[in-house]
Batch of 2 targets.
Target 1
Amino acid sequence: MNKFTPLDAHEEKTMQHFIFYRWCFLYFCLQSIFVTAAPLGGNFSLTNTEGKSVALQDYAGQVVLLTFGFLSCPDICPTTLTELKQVINALPATQRDKVTVLFITVDPERDTAEKLKTYLQYFSPNFVGLRGSVAEIRNVCKQYGTSFRYLPKTEQGYSVEHASQLFIIDSTGKLVRLMPYGTPREIVVQYVAGLIH
Ligand SMILES: [Cu+2]
């Protein structure tokens, strides 16, 4: 059959069916991608600096400000932790104990529980440091849509590339917002205050 021959009624119907089913197939494929993609965040368990197992759900009722970092980080981590201390201080006194800062080390080999505890206390005695095996920490990072990478060793030792955002988790344990590093303090304070009930 010449390809320019007009389609007869039967062929036309078959063609229409074909197009219809092809769209249906595409629709279901796309839908399954978007609907089944698990939302970022969720519960996880790691170990605190007292050696106790801690789960995110232990902080139900609290707004959690989650960050990933490591103690020998020259800039991002100390700046973030200083900023978080200021954020908490900027909240009304009655709201401050409704917010928990969790700092997960991505360098558990060098960041021992004791070093982590001492380091965080420098910023605030209320900041919670969490550790685990590299694999456990990688899983939490993956769950939160991020990762980290050990950079080649230099004379100063190795550095770790890690997420710089602040992960904001509401009082039901749901990841509700990612704030980029450097977000003005007022914006963070306002957003966090809005989550406190
Ligand atoms: Cu850092």
Target 2
Amino acid sequence: MVYKSILLIGVGALGSAFLQNSIGMFDKVGIFDGDVVAKSNLSTQPFYADCDPSFPVSKAGFAADKMRGIDKNTEYIPYEKYFTDEDFEIFSQYDVIADFTDNLRSRLVINDGCTKRGKPAIFSSLNDRELSIFFYGEDSACFNCIFRNSIGKAKEGCEAMLSLPGKNAMSFMMEKISLFLSGNLEPGSFCAFNLSNGNEIQTETMKDLECETCSLHSFKLERDGFIQVCSSGIKFSLHKQIPLYGLKDKLNGSRLIDNYLLYGKNGMSVLVSENGDFLFTNYSRKQAEELLASLFP
Ligand SMILES: [Zn+2]
């Protein structure tokens, strides 16, 4: 392999499947994810099948521990938080970045960081129709070049990812990623696997001269802290460490469980990590914003 270390961002269905199939490929693997293992993950993400989700277990921490148990020759480093533009410094510690997140917003943030640093990257995503993989390298088209005209129209995210794609789709993904990692697939390549008929596409892409990210145009990311709103809840990051003890006093009836604070009322719940990440369940975005405003005026 040309690349000896990799930073995986997102260990849901695709990321965890990649992880399990990557044994022996790297000296060092960073695992970035702010999510905790949910009951629904046990059936759709086999990697987590032996995890007990009755108390909060970080996906990144669980994945690193599990991989250390299987693979003694690779260093596994967990980052138990949602990825934001505050985390770009970590890129310098890895040869290649792999985006396996399930939302466009994170993908655009990661793309921004990689293009600014000329850092090679793999963007892998899944919707109900296809599994797609895009490879970025310095001077190639970037993720935004390719998708800037369809952003907002493409359906993706955790609602679409109800089950793991079949074995053929996964072996397609592993084959293409291995080719790229060994220098046998050019940056700028786009590959897709059609989930219903098994058709495969591979094509070269061109830079878009009007791209907001990699052209001379300036690109400003919104910094309101919202990561994603989807069926599993609302994910929000404060971009900083927070003292959970202090927050516990403000949220009547909340309880500390390891590195998390859990607060629940009337079927609604908020899970807060000490890294400043929030998962709101059964909250509307407005309700989540109101609660945040009352806690951090
Ligand atoms: Zn671009």
